[in-house]
Amino acid sequence: MAGVLSDQFKRGLNLQTKTVGKERIRKAQENNEDIAILSMDLPGENKPFKCVLGPDCLFGDQYSLPLGTKKMEYKTRQWHEKCFCCVMCKTPIGTQSFIPREQEIYCAKCYEEKYATRCIKCNKVITSGGVTYKNEPWHRECFTCTNCQTSLAGARFTSRDDKPYCADCFGELFAKRCYACSRPITGIGGTKFISFEDRHWHNDCFYCASCRTSLVGKGFITDNTDIICPECAKQKLN
Ligand SMILES: [Zn+2]
Ligand SMILES: [Zn+2]
Ligand SMILES: [Zn+2]
Ligand SMILES: [Zn+2]
Ligand SMILES: [Zn+2]
Ligand SMILES: [Zn+2]
């Protein structure tokens, strides 16, 4: 059956924001908060600085942070403000939120491009909802019957060779057929049926060929392709 995917993707984003302001920065550092901090070295302060971009530093000197130049700090690492860029599109994060992943910094757009859940059918990003089938994500509207293409999200379906089918199509295509009426026996919805050797009947179709009484739960005798009740069989013998 299909399960509903919750807003898994959005929760997984783990967006970070940046903070400025002396008090706020002090507090964040004390509490070891998971945020990036934009600050400036104050005169007299002489902390060692090294821009993470190293030789690719946009400032031109990874060790230089002249007074009045802002630096970004995140966890144990430091960047020049303009060097704090999305690893994919190289756009400075600026005032935007960002997403840290392993040692990389992503803007929200690139992160989505790269890591978002994609529908196995149309390959587009699933931003919310969707269904999982065989552990793979689908848009609700993409999860359709293999045969008639009606949406199966929230509907009853059956799979065959790992492909989902609506109940009607499955019945038409694959179900056992009743020997008497030739209509499919779907088994969905608790349809009861009788099997005997390699033949199957709907309960309602399982009756004596001679007197037409139901043979469900009773003894019966086969007479060529017919099934008949013991009484009719006896009369036939006489
Ligand atoms: Zn730099
Ligand atoms: Zn980006
Ligand atoms: Zn899709
Ligand atoms: Zn169908
Ligand atoms: Zn039947
Ligand atoms: Zn009979």
UniProtKB/TrEMBL annotation:
Transmembrane segments: none
CDD domains to which the protein is assigned, alphabetical: LIM5_LIMPETin, LIM6_LIMPETin
Pfam family, one: LIM
Entry superkingdom: Eukaryota
Coiled coil: none
Domain LIM zinc-binding: 55-116, 117-176, 179-238
Keywords from the named record: LIM domain, Metal-binding, Repeat, Zinc
PANTHER family in UniProt: FOUR AND A HALF LIM DOMAINS PROTEIN (PTHR24205), PROTEIN ESPINAS (PTHR24205:SF4)
Protein name: Four and a half LIM domains protein 2 isoform X4
